[in-house]
Fold each of these.
Amino acid sequence: MLDDIVRGYAVAVAESAVLDGSISTVADEIELFSRTLIASEPLRLALTDPGLATVERRGIVADLLVDRSLPATADLVSFVVRVVRAGDVPVTVAAAEGLLAHSAPSAEVLLDAEAPAGRVGARERIRGYSERVLQEITEPAALDAVEDELFRFARVLEDNPELRRVLEDTNFALSARIDVLSDLIASHVKPATLRLCSYVLRAGRLRNLVGTYDWLVELVAEERGRRIADVRSCVPLSDDEQQRLAQALRRLVGREVEVRVIIDDSVVGGIMISTGDLFIDGTVRLRFERLRDQFAQQV
């Protein structure tokens, strides 16, 4: 069974893959990775080892899948490694493969793909779904536009209780409520905004529809933070070094990032990287502290 946050992310991957015609390829690649994970004991032990840092396990996924599979495949597996317990990675990957394998050749059929969810589960699904939809946006200006459109739609709902009642009323068919939403905003917003607004209705029961759309605005702001990588170094990095670092981070986090170098005299050799929820300490100071701790345990 899929965790709700992974289900939301996987549904967004499936939707996009259906629309661009790659659904069969992504499903086959996830199936192959799932079988490899079961068959290869070293790989399984590495990805299920809770003592191995998440960034290291995601690095293993990047080494195996980036440039050898579609980006959506690598991104989905990396997401699973990041959000579920290490021991649950194999079963979660297998469950995600099942969802993709059963995705119909028509995106509309995915409307019925969601099992019932309570309020907490619905929020988690929206978080996972929104992360993938926003991840697919490459232009910063487009991300800003989606944030603005979500905010404005939340205000429209806030000011129109009758519209809010229609969209919240589960006595109306889901497809009918989505049609109402689409008729209202489709021609005025970006496709990503329409996808996010529609998925809120699909995800499950929600206590506060306006509050949920306002929360989506906050998720867009979080995504913007993931696009910037703060790199602390005691010396400047060359353009080539910054470019290679940006490429390496793209492999890890599944999105384009802008490297922002901060000269920090307290960094002793190497660099420290922070982007979104990813933190990498590659400094000499860290290695010294680890050696010191090892020495202290031996005396």
Amino acid sequence: MTATVAALQRHPLKSHGRETLASVALSAGKGLPWDRHWAVAHEAAKIAEGEWAPCQNFSRGSKAPKLMAIEARFDETTGALTLTHPERPTIRFRPDVADEAARFVDWVMPISPADRALPARLYSVAGRGMTDTDYPSVSIISLASNRALGAAMGTELSPKRWRANIWIEGLEPFGEPDLVGRRLRAGDVLLDVVEPIERCLATTANPDTGIRDADTLGALRARFGHQNFGLYARVVQGGTIRAGDQIAVLP
């Protein structure tokens, strides 16, 4: 089977929703544009202002599972972000406008656990998304692996649980370790596969409801002895990548 790009996803506000893209222009040495462009710093965050910061400084699905049920839509022209959630009214706001960002913090508070550090403010760094890697990365999952894991668990897993940028169809199930150190071509884009993604409790939450309902981490540990699922990659040659593009695995 030929491997193809099945879907492209971005997450404008880290851990707070995702949206599907038909295509996206990538640049060498950069992450996916507008992906994790903002993050929600919580009240216990220790951040060096103006710099990338690791995930423990931000509100995220591993600590606040209801966040996993947020859907997002970002308007690049107006800078407005629209979020929906089954327990909250739809909100549209501009994250870079202080009073509108504060309105978002009020909106997300009821779906944030009271026994965890609560959301305090939005944070961003020019030209750098708040990826979970300390280098600009894009994330990849294999839909075949997602189906195989779900089958082993006796359930259907939504690929949205993994919060990846590029969903690939046509790879061998659980063959991702063989791609580390390899290069992928999709259209004009070249990606260097750097490392596997170690997963957290966010993946146990249903992306439709925000309720933890699947022991993804236990299933991964039982089968493989680790919690890895998906891959991080660097963009080494830019270009436009589109849903439906063929994926070539290079030496």
Amino acid sequence: MSEQPVVFVTGGGRGIGAAVVRLAARRGWAVAFSYLGDSGSAEALAAEVRAEGGRALALQGDVADSGFPAPALDRIEAELGPVTMLVNNAGITGRIGGFLDMPLDVMRRTFEVNVLGLMGLTQEVARRWRAGGIKGRIVNLSSTAATSGAPGDYIHYAASKAAVDAFTLGLAKELGPLGIRVNAVSPTVTRTRIHADGGKPERVEAAAGRIPLGRVGEPEDSAEAVIWLLSEEAGFVSGSILKVSGGG
């Protein structure tokens, strides 16, 4: 790995991604993160990191765009150094609702962002690591919906996250001989805007009663798990899917 680790967090402008950015910077890592549209919040986060003495770069772009990975990685390398850690956090639920009424274009977009976009970026990153002999680290953001199926809410989203789980397990075995570790964090319902974006903001508080520890997740709960999996302390952990679910 480089003298200063460089972590790239997709969808890092808010929610779990922003919490990962803050914690990574406090570890002394240089941080690049992508965001889709809210440039104000993204630049404010980057400025916050810099004000605390860290190095940060905010990149606007859509991870589902096949033209996104290479230019983004080139710019990060030019300004911060080669990426040594990747956090595939960007994700959408699509519209929340029953499967029988879910439009195909909503389901397609969900898979384009959550699965194909994640795979495309990971492929470009891992190819660069192989060429440069970098023993990088990858953490994918999954969801407990991958194992519950999320009936009545977002079966299509649950299916996309089940794909992320399978991808994590397979990629860890394929890249392990290169010294590259691949893991996932699987949060339960977490207090972010993803549910409001899907049309059901009340879903967050309604879920608290179903969680054994009696509350929904906070972004920092999952971010701490991500940082641990990226760290040297988890040096022999690969192919794991770490639930951050309050016992659910």
